Amino acid sequence: MGKVLMKGNEVIAEAAVTADCKYFFGYPITPQSELVAYMAQRLPEVGGLFLQAESEVAAINMVYGASSAGVRVMTSSSSPGFSLKQEGISFLVGSQLPAVVVNIMRGGPGLGNIQPAQSDYFQVTKGGGHGDYHVPVLAPSTLQEIVDLIQDAFYIADSYRTPVIILGDGMLGQMMEPVEFRKKEYPPLPKKDWATTGTVGDGAPKTITSLDLNAETLEKRNIELQKKTDSMAIHEVRYEEQMMEDAETVIVAYGTVARIAMNAIKKAREDGIKVGLIRPISLWPFPEKPFLESREKVKRYLCVEMSAGQMIEDVRLAVNGHTPVDFFGRNGGIVPTQEEIYEQIVRKHGGVQHANSL
User: Fold this and answer.
1) Predicted pLDDT of residue 15
2) Confidence class of residue 356 from pLDDT cuts 50, 70 and 90?
3) Closest Cα partner for 68 from 162, 195, 158?
4) CA dihedral 112, 118, 119, 120 (to 10 degrees)
5) Which of 316-351 are b and which e, b meaning 16 or more Cβ less than 10 Å from the residue's Cβ?
6) What is the DSSP string of 60-115?
7) Do residues 278 and 291 touch, judged by C-beta distance below 8 A?
8) Angle at the Cα of 44 from the Cα atoms of 43 and 49, rounded to 5 degrees
9) pLDDT, tens only, 63-94
10) Mean pLDDT value across residues 152-175
11) Which comes out higher in pLDDT, residue 10 or 199?
12) Whole-number pLDDT of residue 352
């Protein structure tokens, strides 16, 4: 299959089919409704099941049921609808059930608007539901990267028995780009002998639940969950660096904002300003390594987000006071422009003329 021109939401759906996901439960909400519509048509073609739930709460609990049976399953929503799924995500974590949950963010808080935003960063990276947990969060910046990361998400989910979140903004969901659906190869996965598909005299009945009324056994379970969290924090880190060799100013941005920032970086480089980019791809676990390696060499970091400033907290933790960390952001559905980011870069450098004389 060669390249095809598709919309971002449809790419997410087809990438899930490529990853052998045959079960989807969801509820339409702008700006991700095309994903739901695509699944409604596509899954029956591959022998799968699409079911539109009566609400987001119902959808995430249908995901819980399907995952308990050991199948690959996905749901999707946008910011207000994603908030309604938080209890179910906590249940998935507590029950150690794999699933992929997509959030195509829109402006908030509250109902907000249907314009793109990145203001759900705290919610997805700090654990939006109750209890001690983190789940892996992957943030693609291009439609082709969606194809790869969706497949990675299902593999991570099955490897660790955990939900995985794919985070994008409304711009990523609505844009169109040529993509190729290449099926990735992965090492063998553990057998799902925990799935509640019935017994045939081969053992005791299987039960999946997050309920544990005994404090000692619940603590023991939580300790095991934390060991899994620690392992994911080591092995599931993803990031990209651009032009970092001699960078004095480093832009930190993820998702579509990183693409806009890259154009501003190229313009600044043409003007003699040494700027680089760190693009976190996994927002949890947050990639600390590129900051540990660069914080003694660069003069400043500039965190650019479509929010009032959320990822900047993780950047500051990674930099740990070694270098100033500044912020530039737009929110409410306003996308920062290449010109605005370039202006911020020049301002931090004290002007283009000053930069050229360095």
Assistant:
1) 98
2) very low
3) 195
4) 100
5) bebbeeebebebbbbbebebbebebbbebbbebbee
6) HHHHHHHHHTT--EEEEE-HHHHHHTHHHHHHHHHHT--EEEEEEEBS-STT--SS
7) yes
8) 65
9) 999 999 999 999 999 999 999 999 999 999 99
10) 97
11) 10
12) 66
Measure the CA–CA gap between 34 and 314, rounded to whole angstroms.
32
User: What is the average per-residue pLDDT within 311-320?
Assistant: 98
| Cα gap 191→306, rounded to integer Å | 41
**Mean pLDDT of all residues in the chain?**
95
Contacts of 124 (CB under 8 A, 6+ apart): 103, 135, 137, 165, 167, 283, 284
Tally of CB atoms within 10 A around 1: 8
Token digits for 108?
């908030």
Task: Determine the average pLDDT of the residues in 265-290.
Answer: 97
Residues ≥6 apart with Cβ < 8 Å to 182:
147, 148
pLDDT at 357 over 50: no
Kindly state the tokens that stand for 34: 């095309």
Are the CB atoms for 278 and 251 separated by under 8 Å?
yes
Determine the average pLDDT of the residues in 182-186: 96
Q: Which two tokens stand for residue 279?
A: 């693009």
List for the chain the helix, strand, coil content (%; round to 5).
Answer: 40, 20, 40
Which residues are CB-contacts of 104 (< 8 A; sequence separation ≥ 6)? 8, 9, 31, 32, 35, 76, 77, 78, 168, 169, 170, 172, 173
**Local structure of 168: helix, strand or coil:** strand
- Categorize the per-residue pLDDT at 355 as very low, low, confident or very high, splitting at 50, 70 and 90: very low
Look up residue 206 and give its two tokens. Answer: 């299987």
How far from chain centre, in Å, is Cα 214? Answer: 34
Q: Is the dihedral of CA 149, 150, 153, 159 positive or negative?
A: negative
Give the angle subtended at the CA of 118 by the CAs of 114 and 124, to the nearest 5°.
110
Q: Closest by alpha carbon to 78, among 42, 49, 115? A: 115
